[in-house]
Design a protein that fits this description.
Strand order of the largest sheet: 2-3-6-1-7
Radius of gyration: 34 Å
Number of strands: 13
Strand content: 5-15%
Helix content: 40-55%
Shape: elongated
Number of helices: 16
Largest sheet: 5 strands, parallel
């Protein structure tokens, strides 16, 4: 059975190379009884891979059970997996079979295996090594024939280094590891999945399928989706129920997308409601980068003044240090013993070829107002492209709609 048949049979949407590699590995390992460890973030569809492995194995007619190890309390996990004898603990009124006994001859899928307590990990290791287990409260060893497929969204080796997961169990489980890629690494599949979910919910709610316009599609693909396919499905359902127009714009989509964390430091108390990544954050970063460059330049110049020019240059620099002015700081009154002279533009120019005299200049007070900077950049972009807003918006790195709003806001018509 080829990959396309597998996708059609198990309703797997996508053509990502990383997804195809994971599916090919699952198909190759399925006919064996090798233990498989599926790695992937929450919501990527790890359980679907376990079902593929079971369905294509020689145990396909045997039982299959999925167990979420993180959802079972620590005090009862041993009883759930391996069973218990009557009276072995408070509330044990009858003898009970565990999953490893009832699923013998089939496959057990241990989801979130990294959540297992250390004592349970020791019991699981014995099952993997010898196929033997002991019920809680019993001294009798029992045999089982179960294939184990495990999954985790954690780094088990890191847990092992911290003493929270047995290293020997990790190597037993990961005989063949399968890495399921997160949705942000399958960008070419995001819109395909969204269309599939939109069609499913249209059929479920007896309505017309929702459709994304081009700008909304681009916004959808740019999202990182920390919740992966589960999160994308929830967004599709939310829009299917709440939107009456059925043609979704980028603005409408942005209302249901989670706010992205900006890498730009937040220097003020809040963000605007209509922008997840505020343009002012970008202007702040540009200004601070500019200030850093100016400070670096100032350090180089003062270093040259303190150390003197290169011996072979034969050039003297005078009257520069006392007149230097950093546009981001107040003009200095004294610099290294010099008194700031009164600016004059009638000083004679020296005719000495080995002497360079730089006349004093009036300090320029540069406005640091964000509004001023926005207006200045917008004007420059519009002048550069002769008033063509689309090209100006691309130059500024903002949408044409945002540029139009800024033009209205600052009366730049």
């Amino acid at each position: 059975m080829n990959i396309q048949d597998i996708k059609q049979r198990f309703e797997i949407i996508g053509n990502s190379p990383l997804l195809n590699i994971a599916l090919e590995t699952a198909v190759k390992v399925a006919p064996t009884d090798i233990t498989v460890l599926i790695n992937g973030e929450s919501g990527v569809g790890k359980e679907a891979f376990s079902k593929i492995i079971h369905s294509l194995s020689n145990r396909k007619h045997g039982p299959f059970i999925a167990v979420n190890c993180g959802a079972i309390p620590e005090g009862t996990i041993d009883s759930e997996l391996f069973g218990h004898e009557k009276g072995s603990f408070t509330g044990a009124h009858d003898t009970r079979k565990g999953y490893f006994e009832t699923v013998s001859g089939g496959t057990i899928f241990l989801d979130e295996v990294g959540e297992l307590p250390l004592e349970t990990q020791a019991r699981l290791l014995r099952v993997l090594e010898s196929g033997e287990f002991i019920k809680v409260g019993s001294s009798k060893t029992q045999k089982t024939d179960v294939r184990v497929v495990a999954a985790t969204n954690k780094d088990l080796l890191t847990l092992s280094d911290n003493g929270k997961f047995r290293e020997d169990l990790y190597y037993r489980l990961s005989t063949v590891p399968i890495k399921v890629p997160p949705l942000r690494e399958r960008k070419e599949d995001i819109h395909l999945l969204f269309r599939k979910f939109a069609a499913d919910f249209a059929e479920k709610y007896k309505s017309k399928p929702i459709v994304l316009d081009l700008e909304a599609q681009q916004l959808l693909v740019r999202n990182r989706f920390p919740g992966n396919i589960r999160q994308l499905k929830n967004i599709a359902e939310q829009l299917s129920v709440l939107d009456d127009d059925k043609l979704i714009t980028a603005e409408e989509l942005s209302r249901v997308l989670p706010a992205e964390r900006s890498s730009v430091p937040m220097l003020f108390g809040g963000t605007t409601a209509d922008n997840a990544l505020n343009e002012r954050d970008i202007f702040y970063k540009v200004l601070f980068d500019l200030r850093k460059d100016m400070n670096d330049l100032k350090g180089i110049v003062f270093g040259m003044l303190q150390n003197g020019p290169a011996p072979d240059s034969g050039t003297k620099v005078e009257n520069f240090a006392p007149n230097y002015h950093d546009p981001f700081t107040p003009a200095p009154q004294h610099t290294q013993g010099f008194t700031q002279p009164t600016p004059s533009y009638n000083q004679p120019v020296s005719t000495n070829p080995n002497m360079i005299e730089i006349p004093d200049a009036q300090p320029v007070i540069e406005s640091l107002s964000l509004e001023y900077k926005e207006i200045e950049l917008i004007k420059k972009a519009l002048d550069k492209y002769n008033g063509k807003r689309k090209k100006a918006a691309n130059e500024l790195g903002i949408s044409e709609r945002t540029l139009y709003r800024k033009i209205k806001q600052y009366d730049l018509e």
